[in-house]
Write a structure and sequence with these properties.
The structure holds two protein chains of two kinds. By secondary structure, chain A is an alpha+beta fold. Helices cover about 35% and strands about 25% of the residues of chain A. Chain B is mainly alpha-helical. Chain B is built from nine helices and no strands. In chain B, about 35% of the residues are buried. The chains are: A alpha+beta, B mainly alpha. The interface between A and B is large, with 46 and 54 residues.
């Protein structure tokens, strides 16, 4: 417990514990001061006057809502970023600003368009020089959206369901906010998100649905996915539930040049490391079956190639393996009650194989089986 | 608050910020935004101007970090910077000089506490009115000193830093302000025994 030396009224006014009791009615501090008053009844007038002084000094003090402070802080970070980009000293090809992409000959189930892959490489070359211009471009779009768009905020403790005019539904997490704007000139539905939200997008192929955060842009036709871009955190992420989305760096997307980006399919997520300015693709922690009628996962002497293909189909996750090496392997197993990784581990154990997850794709390493 | 910096003192976060870590600055911004906002509002009712000045202040800090050193107290350093910036901005539009930045008139409105009975409230309001009156009779500088000393717990050296005054003038002004405070409490004691008895009941 405290033991303050109070020799005058100003000692009392300046006492942090006393202030806390007066201003926030703190019970713990209150208990101390009640006892102190009982022990020092002659000093009651100090207490009375000090109380008034503190209240007068504290009058008109407001506590800004946390999201307003967060928005002000985000604006400062944003301006710093713009400032920094204007002072990029040179332009370094080996600066590690490339998006990490898989160098293995992966057969994506959905397939990334060749032109898109090309755009990733081309985008890497121009990204530095274009950065200044791009950052400004994003700011000008955001400025416009702030003026003409509709702003939604969630200051309540739980997630808030928002129904957008186009029929899309958004679950906005607490402390998050978004601006919705439809630009007829470019036939786009545009969202500017701060924080975290789950989107269930109404299908409208003629009006692509685009979600901007300060670092990443997600472009979709009709699908459901989650975006997390909380100002405080160093990683922004996008997780896909159904459908397909394209992900871009914001600076690249808002430029006039070909945007660098890649496609995300269900059970995949993109993570953007804000410090390293790197996007990487990964799998979600617990992949869900995305196929409507996946059938059962009971196999008797089935070729392992067939099992991998069925897994790939059911979960929409690419599994890459060497067909020739695995052609002699067959598996008998009941996998229905296991989750995706459980199934994968069991099969791999049986054929003595291992796997790695590289950019959202499962890559199997195996020595093959004796025939 | 940024998890990375929890448990660090302002001054430690500050030294991380000086190395060019924008997350550290972000943490400083969030931690002190409310304090700066409320302090700024003591000089002007233009809340947008206060917010602009806070933003400019942090952007300038970031830009000039190479020429900035460690500081003994981040909180008061920020308040000093905001005060200077506000003075400059207000002198552009208003009829004040940067040196004559003044505290706004203290406001009388006090929070209503529902658990307090009406008669106590009335008495309390009376006392508060006297406090406002007594403080208003002080110079604006003294009012600011009282605010900094008693509400923000700044010591004489820190007040001198914020208001750009020598330590001796802070002491002198503070002495006057304190004696005024003591007069207030004496008045209560001499003239309002009844109120004290009421208070006694309230505080137990």
């Amino acid at each position: 417990m405290h033991n303050f030396e109070i020799n005058s009224i100003d000692d009392l006014v300046a006492n942090a514990s006393f202030q806390q009791w007066i201003l926030s009615n703190d019970e713990k501090e209150g208990a101390y001061w009640s006892r102190w008053i009982a022990d020092n009844p002659e000093k009651l007038e100090w207490v009375a006057a000090a109380r008034s002084v503190i209240q007068v000094l504290a009058a008109n003090t407001v506590a800004l809502p946390p999201d307003e402070v967060a928005a002000a802080a985000a604006a400062i970070q944003h301006k710093i970023l713009l400032e920094e980009n204007q002072h990029v000293p040179g332009f370094d090809l080996h600066s590690g600003r490339k998006i990490r992409i898989n160098s293995l000959p992966v057969r994506f189930k959905w397939g990334i368009a060749a032109s898109l892959l090309l755009a990733i490489f081309a985008g890497t070359l121009i990204v530095q020089t274009a950065k200044v211009k791009n950052a400004r471009a994003y700011e000008s779009i955001l400025d416009k959206a702030t003026k003409v768009g509709t702003t939604y905020r969630n200051n309540s403790p739980g997630a808030r369901r928002i129904y957008l005019p186009d029929g899309s539904e958004v679950d906005l997490q607490t402390g998050s906010s978004l601006i919705y704007m439809v630009e007829d000139a470019v036939a786009r539905r545009e969202i500017f998100l701060t924080g975290e939200a789950f989107f269930n997008v109404a299908t409208d192929p003629s009006h692509p649905f685009i979600v901007y955060t300060s670092n990443i842009v997600t472009r979709v036709l009709g699908t459901s996915f989650r975006i997390k871009a909380v100002p405080d955190e160093t990683v922004a992420s996008i997780t896909v539930c159904t459908g397909k989305v394209s992900v871009y760096k914001t600076a690249s997307f808002t430029s006039q040049d070909a945007a660098e980006g890649f496609v995300l399919t269900p059970n995949q997520k993109a993570e953007y490391d804000i410090k390293k300015e790197q996007i990487s693709k990964a799998l979600v922690e617990s992949p869900q079956v995305t196929k409507k009628d996946p059938g059962d996962f009971s196999f008797e002497g089935a070729p392992v190639i067939q099992i991998f293909r069925e897994l790939q189909d059911a979960y929409g996750i690419s599994i890459v393996f060497d067909e020739q090496t695995l052609s002699t392997c067959s598996v008998t197993a009941v996998l229905d009650d296991k989750n995706f990784y459980g199934k994968l581990n069991t099969v791999c154990k049986i054929i003595n194989a291992t796997y790695e997850i590289i950019d959202g794709t499962i890559v199997i390493s195996a020595k093959g089986c004796k025939s | 608050m940024n998890q990375t910096f929890s448990g660090y003192s302002d001054e430690e976060i500050w030294s991380v910020f000086l190395t060019g870590d924008s997350a550290a600055l972000d943490c400083i911004v969030k931690k002190h935004y409310n304090l700066l906002y409320n302090y700024g509002r003591k000089f002007t009712q233009d809340t947008d101007l206060v917010k602009d000045c806070i933003q400019e202040l942090f952007l300038a800090l970031w830009k000039n970090r190479a020429g900035t050193g460690n500081t003994a107290c981040v909180k008061y350093y920020l308040m000093k910077s905001l005060r200077r910036r506000l003075a400059r901005e207000l002198s552009k539009t208003g009829n004040i000089t940067p040196e004559s930045l003044e505290f706004l008139q203290l406001n009388m409105q006090l929070p209503q506490s529902p658990e307090v009975q009406k008669i106590q409230e009335e008495r309390h309001a009376e006392l508060s009115a006297r406090v406002v009156q007594a403080i208003s009779a002080l110079s604006k500088r003294q009012q600011e000193i009282i605010y900094l000393r008693f509400y923000l717990n700044a010591n004489a050296a820190e007040i001198g830093l914020i208001m750009n005054l020598s330590r001796q003038s802070v002491y002198n002004l503070l002495q006057l302000a304190i004696s005024r405070l003591r007069e207030i409490s004496d008045t209560v004691f001499k003239h309002d025994i009844g109120y004290l008895l009421l208070l006694l009941a309230l505080f137990h």
